[in-house]
Here is the input.
Amino acid sequence: AQTVTQSQPEMSVQEAETVTLSCTYDTSENNYYLFWYKQPPSRQMILVIRQEAYKQQNATENRFSVNFQKAAKSFSLKISDSQLGDTAMYFCAFIFAWDNYGQNFVFGPGTRLSVLP
Amino acid sequence: ETGVTQTPRHLVMGMTNKKSLKCEQHLGHNAMYWYKQSAKKPLELMFVYNFKEQTENNSVPSRFSPECPNSSHLFLHLHTLQPEDSALYLCASSQDSSTTAGGIQETQYFGPGTRLLVL
Here is the structure.
């Protein structure tokens, strides 16, 4: 079975500091994509960053970066210089199969991040 | 059965058909959600139900009609869909859909999704 685990239900960080959200997954697939999504109070999902499993280099996107450890099936998100607007629910997800009609997503349960002033 | 289940897992329908997607959660939650995930687009929230009452409808066309008969079941009725409605439809549930004073939601647990193809 394909599963995603986020072991930290809630986290908090002081503004301007760095925080790391953990994610582990289980799959027998060799080719897949990993994602971190942010869901602010508006509830609309925002793609934060993505990583192709076949790439060894960790993805970065401005203040967001990942530590992808394929052998350990670990995909953590680091947020640097945290801002109040980063307060949200963060979901880890991966796609293990796709075709012309869409993708099969597996989502973790989410980590609630609070950025404190 | 545990967690959140969705049926069918795959569905192919014509534009004149009527079909329904079903979601069931076995977690004792009170809130349920429908999301749409299209190719190359972000995940879109469609509907939110809290204690069987619809609390959010994010400008979804009327050809999508949700129904929540109880806190454990959520349906999405489909009629006269368009090819661009082909997507992965994900159901999720949480303890409730309220947010804290800081705007943080409850943890959501996602189902496996229904892959829909409209011909």
In short: Chain A has no helices and twelve strands. The CA atoms of residues 14 and 116 of chain A lie 5 Å apart. The radius of gyration of chain A is 14 Å.
